[in-house]
Amino acid sequence: MYAIRERERERVFILLIVLFKTNTIYFYLCRDISQILSLLNQRQKQQVEPTVAAPSPINKDKYVELKIVDDSKFNYFNKQDIIDLETKGYLVKDQFLTNTKDQQEQQQLSIQDIYLECDGLYESKKLKEANMSRGDGKWNDKSIRSDSLVWLNKETNKDLQEGRLPNISKLLQRIDNLRIELNNTINYASEKTQTQLAIYPNGGRYVKHCDSFLGGNSRRITIIYYLNYEWKQQDGGQLRLYDGRNGSTSDVDPIGDRVLIFLSEHIEHEVLESNCDKRMAITTWLY
Ligand SMILES: O=C(O)CCC(=O)C(=O)O
Ligand SMILES: [Fe+2]
Questions:
Q1: Which residue of 49, 81, 148, 244 sits 20 to 30 Å from the alpha carbon of 187, by its own alpha carbon?
Q2: Domain boundaries, the chain
Q3: Residue limits of the Fe2OG dioxygenase domain (predicted)?
Q4: pTM for the full predicted model
Q5: For 175-185, what is the mean pLDDT?
Q6: Least confident of 68-77, 100-109, 202-211, 215-224
């Protein structure tokens, strides 16, 4: 009798030890999982503000100093545009395709034809989901950046090289004329460019960011050509521009045939939620 009780006590004791140990293991497991979760959380927070702050303006009135050296070369731009770029950091030009002094240019191109070519690229799956990169990290999170894109650089894009995108090619030439005009009128000295087509699906957005990193690449000007020629207010997808000096914001509607130009290094911006089927824009960066 006594021996049986002794054995039972032993069993209970062993059971208690086992329970204690499994609890300990459970405790450590929980601790590790919560550490992993908090690390993931921290990373997610970093993703929401993925860029370093934009550099300060040279003074409170001007982001940069742009000096007009030859105003006879103005075609798309005028003196006020240059002042806007210096002081507000951005400017908007509407009816881009027809608003040129060049008579021939006015006739040549229709936004519908450009849109159709872009849509063709999308439908033939030439666009890839965009990544965000910062330092050596790369993220792909739809709630942060939801567009898909294709690079439209002549050096690398076969469709452009082989003449399959005649309307887009003409548009790119017009956009490049802006670069040449800046070089001629304000000595901008920009030789290198980079261009992409980006399409946002319904519900898409791109959180606040800066196109150029301090001490990183050297994108100086962002030129965006909007393609939604039937855009309506309820389609949303405005580009919110932040004024780093006083925190004020300006929302630019992504209206078709509109060109938005801003200082890549200074103007932080955010694509607000888009509610149309495909929000399309072609963006060129001047280096
Ligand atoms: O499409 C836009 O309005 C801006 C897109 C943008 O900010 C970007 O691609 O860096
Ligand atoms: Fe951007």
A1: 244
A2: 1-48, 51-286
A3: 191-287
A4: 0.81
A5: 97
A6: 100-109
Domain spanning 51-286: CATH superfamily: q2cbj1_9rhob like domain (2.60.120.620)
Q: How many Å lie between the centroid of ligand 1 and the Cα of residue 180?
A: 22
Q: Which of 148, 195, 206 to mutate to test the pocket of ligand 1 (most atoms within 8 A of CB)?
A: 206
> 211: CA distance to ligand 2 center in Å?
5
Ligand nearest to the CA of 145: 1
Ligand 1 centroid to Cα of residue 102, in Å, is 29
Confidence of residue 102 (pLDDT cuts 50, 70, 90): confident
Q: Quick check: 255 and 226 in contact, CB under 8 A?
A: yes
CA-CA distance, 159 to 54, in Å (whole number)?
Answer: 35
- Residue 31, C-beta contacts closer than 8 angstroms, at least 6 positions apart: none
**CB 199 within 8 Å of CB 83:** no
- pLDDT of 202 strictly over 60: yes
Using CA positions, which residue lies closest to atom 5 of ligand 1?
271
Question: How far is 268 from 206, CA to CA, in rounded Å?
Answer: 12
| pLDDT above 70: residue 217 | no
Q: How far does the centroid of ligand 2 lie from the alpha carbon of residue 210, in Å? A: 6
What ipTM was estimated for this complex? 0.99
Task: Count CB atoms within 10 A of the CB of residue 147.
Answer: 22
